Amino acid sequence: xxxxxxxxxxxxxxxxxxxxxxxxxxxxxxxxxxxxxxxxxxxxxxxxxxxxxxxxxxxxxxxxxxxxxxxxxxxxxxxxxxxxxxxxxxxxxxxxxxxxxxxxxxxxxxxxxxxxxxxxxxxxxxxxxxxxxxxxxxxxxxxxxxxxxxxxxxxxxxxxxxxxxxxxxxxxxxxxxxxxxxxxxxxxxxxxxxxxxxxxxxxxxxxxxxxxxxxxxxxxxxxxxxxxxxxxxxxxxxxxxxxxxxxxxxxxxxxxxxxxxxxxxxxxxxxxxxxxxxxxxxxxxxxxxxxxxxxxxxxxxxxxxxxxxxxxxxxxxxxxxxxxxxxxxxxxxxxxxxxxxxxxxxxxxxxxxxxxxxxxxxxxxxxxx
Length: 369
Ligand SMILES: [Zn+2]
What we know:
three-stranded mixed β-sheet; single chain; alpha/beta; binds zinc ion; globular
């Protein structure tokens, strides 16, 4: 009996070992797909001129656009490197260790391929990989197109592991929250509806509301950090807004501070990713904008949209992470914002053509891809 039992035990152990090997094999197949993580951040309507040239001296000195001229001059005009002063993380870390493209002063170019040059068409292009001419308004309603985030959320390896936090409430429609099943925490009611007792929701409810459809970015950042710390999604999309709305309002000082704060948000997100074993060494960060701003006339910067606001199709893209070739510059005349979807999927180890063969191809900024 003893001998037999140990024989049975050996058989069971052998089966368990075989099963473990089989499971590990299956796990590897999944791991190939779930191995990489991604954070995509958008800074709404932040002009490439501000990103690459820093604060505009003439505009920053204009009482029509800037109330706090002395403070702005000290912080953003006095430093020798104005771009670095405005966005130290973007230039000091992302551009050096990763990629920053769209500097038209130095032969680099990115633009939206859509012919609208405003937000919903821009985000649709970024998230689906191509323009949709049927989207002609920011009040377009639920998006008929499937974003790469929704597509990921339908795959076993990513199911329930993709999240979006956004200042602007239109992301409920852009990401088609109802159909996609993506958790979308967007606008003033976003966090309150999902987590009414969360301290962030309480602060948000008590904060001044400058714009009805967009909450202040500090709350979006707080929700993003909470997601990274507590739920650790495989893919997180963070959409900030202030750089666009303060520009529409004509407050250039507030635009500059918003861009500077957003740069700090990026630095904190990146630092959090580097210190968390769930993310460290396997997470790429991509940062971009949905459209540019007008470049003609003294007040052109306040608006965007074709055809009035010439130049507002110009965008920029930054990327950093284990899959990004430092200093890479895509060949060709001008990259498009639609290439971000395929770039993100490729960085995640997936075949972007399985998502949409008609999507714009990946940017040539990834290692070995
Ligand atoms: Zn706008």
